[in-house]
Structure formats: structure tokens, C-alpha cells
Amino acid sequence: MADPRPTEPTALNRRSFLGVAGGVAAAAVGGGLLWNSLVREHLEDEVGSGTTSTSTPTSAGSSSATGSAGRRRTLVVLQLSGGNDGLNTLVPGGQGLYFDARPTLQVKEGEIVVLEGTEYGLHPKLAPLVPLWNEGRLAAVNGVGFLEGQSRSHFQAMDLWWSALPGHARTTGWLGRWLDRSGDTTNPLRAIALGGSSALLIGDRAISTSVRDPSAFALLAPKGADASRLAEAFAATAGPLSADPDLAAAQASVPSALSAVELLAKVTDTDGGGTTSTARARGKANGQPGDLEKGIRQNRGGKTEMVELLDVAAGIIELGIGTEIIVVGVSGYDTHANQATMHPQLLDDLAQGTSKFLAAMDAQGRSEDVLVMTMSEFGRRVQENGNGTDHGQGGMQFISGRAVRGKQVVGVADLSHLVDGDLRSIVDTRSTYAAALDWLGGDTQLTDEVLGGSFDRLGLVTT
Amino acid sequence: MNEREKIAWLYRRVGFGLAPGQLDLLESKGVSAVLDELADPDGSGVPRAKDPWEGVSLPEFDPQQARRDIVSVIAPWLRAMVETTRPLEEWMRWFWHGHFVSTIAVVKQPKLMVGQLQLLGQFGLGDFRTLLRAVSIDPAMLVYLDGIKNKKNAVNENYGRELLELFGLGIGNYTEADVRAAAEALTGWGIDRGTGQARFAPRQHDDKAQTLLGRSGVHDLDTVIDAVVGHDACPRFIAGKLGRAILGPDVDPNLTERLAVELRSNGMQIRPLVRSILEAGLDGAAAPLVIAPVPWFTGAMKALGVEVNSALDVAGGGLVPAGQVPLAAPNVAGWPGGRNWLTSSATVARFNMASALADLTPGDSPAARAASAGDDRALADALNHPDGFGPASSSALSSVRGAGTTSVLTIALSSPELVLA
């Protein structure tokens, strides 16, 4: 019997999918797919300015504030999953307690990269961020957390960071709620999560796109099959939408997925301007589902995960389709063990990724249009525990971009006034969220509604 | 639902799907007999199921070496889901794995992970107290949630917290003091470095009497488990979770309450609880449920009649972008499910797995024959959905009719209808 296994699956690349544009647009009803056909027109014409706000009659009008040359702003959130150890990221100077508490994990005094004019220094792997600091494009926030409702439960803590609603069972994320109230909730490309789906983007209505591995995100047809016909048929399962809401929800996932595939294909095909050939090359190799063992091995997250994902983010922004939020999720920060090996690698990836991304924005002439913010669920305990650290409270965040009032550290890491061995949270996380949303949406009232209160913006970002 | 649809529903929800011809066979027995066979295989004379890892060679337990060989554990398990004579028992093991989570990334020893899964199979349909006690000192769990670090002079609250929050009661039913008390009473458990078995070290155990969940005199494993299982919230929590897993997230809270009362009054026995849930589902309490990648994948393999190892070779990798690899839950809360299975990544992954499986399908399988005959009704039936395709999928199937059986199967398998269990 002939070997039934396919050898070279036919990739449904951009060309084959685009070939069915007309048929696809006609096949489905619903705002999402109509918008997607507009996106395709943009991709074909490579028009830079966004017209997304006028695409559907139900649109609430302009969503993100417009930056230079009428372009949309994009907030990039780097989600460092696991609870980043802020104390080894932004090291407090002149506090002997730091060295006492961390005999093995401490960043050695001679290696700390001092931030001039502050009492802090960076972990040596974060050296690539120093030029940003010197140019006034980087700020840090310390002792950041929730002043009320902080829980030792890992899950409650995570929920709080994602929802920013103490005392409520988590249903929505703060970015999802912003999307709900600021524009077209049926457009899945307003907000994109790279590296895995993000709870930050869950709204009551808004849909978003999540791509776990941008480098392996192609639709594959069986060997010998007519690829474009297959793509068109898959798209056709999406409409007309069933009256059954659950079947309709399953149907609605199809056009979202297809526009994401379209988008990523475009990003990885583009030459120059911030995209590398790495993503392209990996895409071709990894497109097939293939063997389970290989799939698991490849999923182990590389040392350059943040670099690669931010490269894709830069490519998405370059397309100018009006994406307003990109969440980049990288895990591995839960360093209960092996922190001395793992944490420097993670910080190296973070620093390289951030600096390369901002350089790409400079090259694209979009520096005014992006803001990058890190977040993590909590900090870690001051005292080392074996070769790692356990979950703590107050953490730290970096904010970078041209709009940032840089060269400042807001908040403190005060080792002489710990709470149960943890750094105190003295800056409410919602302050950094508020600063970011003000910049993104240009509407302070909307920001306050989304966050359920008015929080001190801390002079972090100019709008 | 008619009888045929009811039987298909049972097997979609708790049976990992149906093999070619199996629905006809079961329909002739009638839904009542089918339910009996599923829920009470001993009484119905169903042959005992083989242990999934019988005869499987696994790396030896060696605490010095991080083994992490995940595929040697998963592949036999996926095969067992497809081939077992007792699907509900295997499904219950799968359910408990998503509840009593441990991951091989942390545990690092395949033999310990298999030991845990075998334990879940052994106790998964018995009484909840026995199951909870066994899991609490299971070696893989002791590693995963730091039980082995929890000692009298260095209390580690990790397991104590999840015991209350995720495994037994749910948030809001205990205090931080309870977490501490449970943790202290559970000190002293470790693993023998030679055998990998759990071992109790009295000198590492704090035997002082605690008050846990309002109960005094709690000082060790048994008294901790008694306090948790004895709490009012426990039957409600377990009945709720299992009910939602089978009937869907929108299950009627009154039903959950009734199931909880039954569970408490019958001594926390799980088998009758599952049976009651299934009966309620057949009786109209079933709500929609988005199928998770693993049951989707096994259901597809089963329905198409593809050889499991070949399927794992070409399509198994899709479980990674789909977001569900056994033994690799994202965190101790397991797989939240629902809309998480409708993300772009999951949708693309499902299409690609469908594509690879379609290519592997034998031409003489009922699904392939229905596809090539252009009989959409028979095709849906062959894929465990006797209620058929809706208008959108039907026209999508028509549009690839002339493109060959493999294309038709790809669209059928990746259709939105097959996303709903």
C-alpha cells in the first residue's frame, strides 16, 4: 500500500489565499469579514494610513489617538509571565540588605550598570537599554503592585494584574475593556497577542487575534489538493452565521484566523524595514503540524523569543493597518529554581528585543507612534530560597518610547521596610495602565472608566 | 435528541468519539444499555481496559537527571483514548488530569507522571476522599506543588493553597489561616530518592493541632483531608466542575445543587455522580460545549479509522499551537477551555490537523466513502455528528466536491460544527 503520509504539504501562502478575495468577501456576512476584505485591499495597495474607523456603520468613531501624519498609535505590552524578579532587574544601590539577602543570586556590585542620577542600576544584560535611558526614552517604575486586594494566591494575583479590578472575579482585562469602549469591537486586528493568547485583551464584546507562534502560522493543504479552493471553502463555513449563538461563535473564529494568517504571511514576506529572514525561514520549516515530539521541542521557547516576537510586531506596525495594541507574551519568569541561569537569559532577550524594536520604529519613522510597557504578575521575595526566589509583591515595570518622560525611576524598592519579607507595593499598577491608556486613546475620562477610578499618572508619559 | 443523537452525544462528551460502524452497533442496543455500559462496565460485562502504559518502556526514575521525556508518556495515552474498551474510565482519568494538574516540565520524571495518571485511573470513579488523599501524597504531585519542600521548620504553602483553592473547595471558602494550617499539617512528606515512592518523615512533620476550616485537632494528612472533604463547599465544587465539564459552562445551578446534595449523601462517590450528570444531559440539561483539542483529535482519529502512530507522526504536533498537550497544562489551574479554544492559533492548528488527518484516511472508511459519494448527511454521521451540517458548511462542502475526497474531509473535519461537542 502506498505511503499515505504527505511529503510536502502545500502551504496556503498569501498569493493563493488572496486569489479568492472576491469569493471570500461575498461568502460571509458580518462586520468582521467585511473589514477583512478592506484589510486585504490595504495590503494589496500598501496604503499606510488607517481607515479602520469608518469601515462599519456601528463603529464608535475614532479609536486610538492619531500620531504623526494621521497614523494610529500602538501600545506594545510586554507580558513577562511568571512574576519577574524586579530586584535583580533594577538593582537598588547602596542597600547592603540586598547583598545579605541574596548571597548567590545577587548582581555583583561591579556588574551593576548604574543609571545616572538615580539610586538604581540595571542588570548587566540590560545594557542595551542604556542608550534609551540616556536619550530620555526610558523610565522605570518601582514598588508597583496593587495597594489593596493583593493576594498570595498566584491566580488571584494574576487576575488582578490582568483585570485591574480588585474585589471582582475576573472576567475582562483592562485592555479588553478599553477596546470595548473605544471603537469597532468586531475588528479582530485592532489588538493582537503574540506568543499566546492574553487575558489582557478579553473584553465583554471586543474580539482580538492571538498568534502563539508567528513563525509557524500557515494554513496547510493536503498534498496535491487545490489550495486556494480549500481556503475559500474554509472561509465559506463562516457565513451565513447560524442563529445558534454557539455555532455562530465557532464560525466567527474562522475569518479571524484567516485574517491573522493573511497578516502574518504579509509580515514574513516583507523585505526590509525591520523584518528579518528568520521568521520567514522558520515559517517554511515549521508550518506543518508534523510530529508531536518535534512540536513540543520547538515550543520550548528560545533564548530569542522576545526578539523574534517583537520583530513580528514591528512588521505588523509597518503594514499600517491600524493595529492599536500588541501584547507580546513570554514566559519563564517564574524563577523558583535556577534563577542564576534563567533570569539573565530572559533579561538579555528583553533588552535586545526592546532596543531592536525601537530602532525599527525609528527606521520606519514611527517612533512617535509607539509606547512599550512591560508588566508581570508580581515581583519576587527579597530573600533567595535555594537557587531561586518565590512569589512576592511589589514589582517593577519599564516604559519606553519617545513619549516617555524618561531618565526617571518612579517609586522605590525599600529593603528596610518590607512586608512579610516582600517589597511593598507603593505605586498602584493602575497608574501605569492609566498613563498608557491616556497616551493610546487621548481620552482621560475613558481611561478612568476603564480602570474604575482615577489614578495618578505619575508624570510618566506625555500625551 | 433522538436515540442516535443521544448516543453520539454521550460519546462526544465522555467517550472520545466513536469508531467506524460503532454508532450503528450501539444504536441497536439502545441508549439505556449504552449508558449502562459506559457508566457501569463491570455490571455490563465490558472487558477490563488495558493499562495504557503496559509494556511501554519508560526512562527509569533518576532524581539526578531531568528526563522530561513527554512523548513516551503521551503517545500511549492518546492511543488508549482511541482504543480503550472502557472510554468513560479513560475520560475520567483525563478529567482528573485537568483538575489535579501536574506537568512533566516540573516533575521531570516520566515514571512519576505515569504513576500519577495510573492513580487517577485507579481512584477516579471511586469516592472523592480516597482520591484526594492519594493525590496529596502522590510523588509527582509532591514535586509539582513543593510537598517535598514542606517541612516543619520551612513551611511551604504551595500545596496547602491549591488543595483548598483549586482541588477541593474553590476560592472564597477558606482563609489564609486555613492555607497555613493545612500546609503545617501536611509537612513531612517526601520522596525516596531510590525508589521514587512517597515517604513520611516524622521528624519533618509538625504534629501540632491546628484549626482548619473551623475544625480543631487537625494535625496530619488524614485529618486535613477529612476537614476538606467534610466542608459544605466540597461536594458543590466537585459536582459543579464535573457537571460543567460534561454538560457545558452554562449548566443550571439548581442542577448543580441537586448533584451536590446527592454526592454528599452517597458518601462522595464519583461514579453515581457521573451517571446522574449523563442522565441529566440526556434528559435535556445539556448545554453547548466547545470541544478541547485532545478530545477533538482523538475523536477525529477514531472516526476516520486512521492508525494512531501515523496520525501522531503527521498531525500530533498540532496539539502544541492548539494549546493543549497532555502533561503540559499552562499552569496548575489546568485548561480553562471555552473561548480559549476559538483563538486564531487554535483554529489554524485544527485546520492543519484536519488536513493531515484527511490525507491519512483510508479510502474505505465510512467517512471517506461518504465524502466521495457526496453524501453530507452520512459524512456528518460518520464524524459523530448525526444532526448534520448547517447551511454554511454544506455549501462549503459543495464547493470542494470536485476537488477530491481529501479536500472534502479536510473541510468537514475543520468545520465549526465539529468544534461543538
Count of individual beta strands of chain B: 4
Unreliable runs of chain A: 1-63, 270-287
Strand content of chain B: under 5%
On the 0-100 scale, what is the average pLDDT of chain B? 95
Radius of gyration of chain A: 23 Å
Bin the helical content of chain A. 25-40%
What class, by secondary structure content of chain A?
A: alpha/beta
How much of the sequence lies in strands of chain A comes to 5-15%
Low-confidence stretches of chain B: none
What is the end-to-end distance of chain A? 68 Å
By oligomeric state, this entry counts as heterodimer
* Average pLDDT figure of chain A: 80
Derived from helix and strand composition plus strand pairing, the structural class of chain B reads: mainly alpha
What does this structure look like?
The termini of chain A are far apart. Chain A is of the alpha/beta class. The radius of gyration of chain A is 23 Å and the shape is globular. Chain A is built from 16 helices and 14 strands. With 421 residues, chain B is mainly alpha-helical. In chain B, 56% of the residues lie in helices and 3% in strands. Chain B has helices spanning 3-14, 22-29, 31-39, 71-83, 87-99, 104-107, 110-123, 128-136, 139-144, 158-168, 176-185, 221-230, 233-247, 253-265, 270-285, 293-304, 308-315, 319-322, 344-360, 366-373, 376-382, 391-399, 405-413, and strands at residues 189-191, 198-200, 210-212, 215-218. Chain B starts with a helix and ends in an 8-residue tail after the last helix. Classes of the chains: A alpha/beta (463), B mainly alpha (421). The interface between A and B is large, with 65 and 70 residues.
